[in-house]
Design a protein that fits this description.
It comes from Rubroshorea leprosula. One of its GO terms (cellular component) is retromer, cargo-selective complex. It is a peripheral membrane protein. Helix 30 runs parallel beside helix 32. The chain has 41 helices and no strands. The longest helix has 31 residues.
Length: 824
């Protein structure tokens, strides 16, 4: 049925265009021969095609535009006729003899345009006559297009200030009255469209009103005459609403014309124009019309007019139909006013003078009360727009911004966590506005209702908002410098700090989770205060929050906290402890906190990370000359190594970390150092792979010879380590030969040779030329052996080492003498 209806419309439109073009042809012929009577005859017949009721507004518009083009040509003919002496008054009377009212009125408007231009009568009189005569067409579609034509031909002929048609002192009022009257009648026609049954849907099938009613009510009869059972009232209403929406610009064009009238000043707009327009808007009681016309008022009239008439404009909002999308209307009004304030700071006093914020706030409250079924999204959107307005117009009034947030909290109270995605996105927009305006979370933290709004976000959106807050801090390099502010901040970003109720770990994307936690880690590094006591409070506050994060988060959040604490320790180096007790922050107190904090990682478990942090803490304690503290950190690191780290590669890495850190320690006495060194060498010798053992053992040689510590230069034990490493490397070669038939690479031997050379240069008396010479010969022999595996990298390494020896020999002096005895 729908396809048939479309095809029928196309046929009716084609027939209408054909009839119009045929009569237009004869009209053109009459115009060319200056035959006025025939021109009027055929033009009336041409315009009779616009009397159809079978076309939808979209199709009717196509027919109307063709007629409009022809009427412009007819208007030019009328102008020429008046120049040739034809009386415009007689012509104005003559066209009124057309048989049908619709062609008659189109012709009357066309001649009326020429009549006004001739200035033989005041423009206001002609316009008044035309707008009254157009009342004769009450069919909605035909009437709308007729009045649209009247508005089009008269818009440049209004008796406005500065216009050539300006009359007496009241001429502007006459122009306004004409446009308002035309607007009122067009709006009535437009609203009336919703009550049509269609484009004479029933009449075109020759049904009486009674029969039509029966057909609408009886399903079987509808099917019997070929009507779809789906063509019910709801479908018809949707169709009519769509058609009405297509025609809305015809009505709104009147308001645009009003806004262009020069004589409409603020006083006239306030006293006459706006009240009359709003009266029509409110009284029409039509959802579509009210929404569109309110939007038109906001868009076409100047910003300063809206500012000075806020009372009147806002007073109409609660009177609109409950189904009107008032949130969008008010949002656009506030957006315009916000942009107006942003574009010119000189107008800001006017906003204060008219109490714009108070009026908008009250109006929003009344609208929400009047529309009891307004969805949560609508409420949040209104307050989001009001907050944006407040931030632009009153950026210094944080109490206003907090008041808006508080009002929003009040309206959301009792609703619990929101599940509507659009509503939660709007809350994110609401909360982001202060961050974007001030570029400073510090300011947002002063808003007491800010965290209360976040309580209504679902878990995922809470994380999104927390990420936005952190990104704002990082982007603007905001300094959060007090423990109270940190407490408030971590309350806002708790969605990233810990698992909120209902979080399902399996659903978390690992990449997203890692990115979120890395952002938290960067945030922790941004927290700083020059005052040591306050900084320690900040560290304690952060620790309190991050320890609630669970095992997945601690590996991300504990390290930055540890390094922030160590930074504070270094600030305290050399300062005397407070003799009066626990009042002041001391390195010992911080190290106690660090010990407890890192311990949480060993329980996660994340033993490798915990070991690294223990060693970092030990090094910091070394710099503070706190031997017991440093020893305790090493002890914890060793316990982790022995009890938690079982992976062979992790053991190798951990061994090197222990050796490297221990080598830099100077705080230990002989007994403690021997204990720790003995353990480290023991770990080295127990590694799984022989090459790893060899490398770790010769690395231990550095534990017995430290350049800047005269008391740690034990040449014998260095030599023992190197010999032991050589034995292990040799054993590795033999095992490889037994297992694979080849001795493998000589790289470990070359590495050990380089260690020999290092300690030889440092003056270790136990490292002799003979030992070096024998090692060179050993390597040469291994490389020339038939069982050795070719290894270009090892060959290059050995050749480079020999070149180094040769270079040292050529240096001369003490170094040259030392190396002179080595044969290469």
């Amino acid at each position: 049925m729908m396809a048939e209806g479309v095809e029928d419309e196309e046929k009716w439109l084609a027939a209408g265009i054909a009839g119009l073009q045929q009569n237009a042809f004869y009209m053109h012929r009459a115009l060319d021969s200056n035959n006025l009577r025939d021109a009027l005859k055929y033009s009336a017949q041409m315009l009779s095609e616009l009397r159809t009721s079978k076309l939808s507004p979209h199709k009717y518009y196509a027919l109307y535009m063709r007629a409009f083009d022809e009427l412009r040509k007819l208007e030019m003919f009328f102008k020429e006729e008046t120049r040739r002496g034809c009386s415009i008054i007689n012509l104005y009377e003559l066209v009124q003899h057309a048989g049908n009212i619709l062609p008659r009125l189109y012709l009357l408007c066309t001649v009326g345009s020429v009549y006004i231009k001739s200035k033989e009568a005041p423009a206001k009189d002609v316009l008044k006559d035309l707008v009254e005569m157009c009342r004769g067409i009450q069919h909605p579609v035909r009437g709308l297009f007729l009045r649209s034509y009247l508005a089009q031909v008269s818009r440049d002929k209004l008796p406005d200030i500065g216009s050539e048609y300006e009359g007496d002192a009241d001429s502007v009022m006459d122009a306004v009255e004409f446009v308002l009257q035309n607007f009122t009648e067009m709006n009535k026609l437009w609203v009336r469209m919703q009550h049509q049954v269609g484009h004479d849907f029933w009449s075109c099938r020759c049904y009486s009103a009674c029969q039509s009613f029966i057909l609408l009510a009886d399903h079987e009869l509808r099917l019997a005459v070929g009507l779809s059972g789906l063509q019910g009232p709801a479908r018809e209403k949707d169709k009519r609403e769509k058609e009405r929406s297509e025609l809305r610009d015809l009505v709104g064009k009147n308001l645009h014309v009003l806004s262009q009238i020069e004589g409409v000043d603020l006083e006239m707009y306030k006293e006459i124009v706006l009240p009359r327009v709003l009266e029509q808007v409110v009284n029409c009681k039509d959802e579509l019309a009210q929404y569109y016309l309110m939007d038109c008022i906001i868009q076409v009239f100047p910003d300063e007019y809206h500012l000075q008439t806020l009372d009147v404009l806002l007073g109409a909002c609660p009177q609109l139909q409950p189904s009107v999308d008032i949130k969008t209307v008010l949002s656009r009004l506030m957006e315009r006013l916000s942009n107006y304030a942003a574009s010119n700071t000189d107008v800001l006093p006017e906003f204060l003078q008219v109490k714009a914020f108070s009026k908008l706030n009250n109006a929003i409250g009344k609208v929400i009360e009047a529309q009891v079924d307004m969805p949560t999204l609508g409420v949040i959107t209104l307050y989001s727009s009001l907050l944006t307005f407040t931030l632009h117009v009153h950026p210094d009034r944080l109490d206003y911004a907090d008041q808006v947030l508080g009002a929003c909290v009040k309206k959301l109270s009792g609703k619990g966590m929101l599940e509507d995605n659009k509503a939660t996105k709007q809350i994110v927009s609401l909360l982001s506005a202060p961050l974007e305006k001030y570029n400073d979370i510090d300011t947002a933290l002063k808003l007491s209702n800010y965290p209360l709004i976040m309580e209504y976000l679902d878990i995922e959106t809470n994380k999104v908002m927390a990420t936005i807050i952190i990104q704002s801090i990082l982007k603007n390099k905001t300094r959060i410098s007090t423990a109270d502010k940190v407490e408030a901040l971590f309350g806002l970003i708790k969605g990233l700090i810990k698992d909120l109720d209902g979080t399902v770990h399996d659903e978390v994307d690992e990449d997203d989770f890692r990115e979120e936690q890395n952002s938290v880690a960067r945030l922790i590094q941004m927290l700083y205060n020059d005052d040591i006591e306050e900084m320690f409070k900040i560290i304690c506050t952060v620790r309190k929050h991050i320890l609630t994060g669970g095992p997945k988060r601690l590996p991300f959040t504990v390290p930055p906290l540890v390094f922030s604490s160590l930074k504070l320790v270094r600030q305290l180096q050399g300062k005397d402890e407070n003799p009066f007790g626990d009042a002041s922050t001391t390195p010992k107190k911080i190290f106690q906190l660090l010990n407890q904090t890192v311990e949480t990682l060993s329980n996660v478990p994340a033993p490798e990370l915990a070991l690294r942090l223990y060693l970092q803490c030990a090094e910091a304690a070394n710099d503070c000359d706190l031997e017991p503290v440093a020893y305790e950190f090493f002890t914890q690191a060793y316990i982790l190594y022995e009890e938690e780290i079982s992976d062979s590669r992790a053991q190798v890495t951990a061994t090197y970390l222990i050796i490297g850190t221990l080598q830099r320690m100077h705080v230990f006495g002989v007994e403690n150092r021997d204990t720790l060194t003995h353990k480290a060498t023991g770990y080295s010798a127990k590694l799984l792979k022989k090459p790893d053992q060899s490398r770790a053992v010769y690395a231990c040689s550095h534990l017995f010879w430290v350049d800047d510590q005269d008391n740690i230069k034990d040449g014998e034990r260095v030599l023992l380590c190197l010999k032991r490493a050589l034995r292990i490397a040799n054993a590795a070669q033999q095992m490889a030969n037994a297992a694979r038939g080849s001795t493998g690479s000589v790289t470990p031997f070359v590495e050990i040779l380089n260690k020999y050379l290092y300690f030889f240069e440092k003056g270790n008396p136990q490292i002799t030329v003979d030992a070096i010479q024998s090692l060179i010969e050993l390597i040469t022999t291994e490389m020339q052996s038939d069982s050795s595996t070719p290894d270009p990298a090892a060959d290059a390494f050995f050749a480079s080492t020999l070149r180094y020896i040769q270079f040292q020999k050529q240096k001369g002096g003490a170094i040259g003498e030392k190396y002179d005895s080595i044969q290469v």
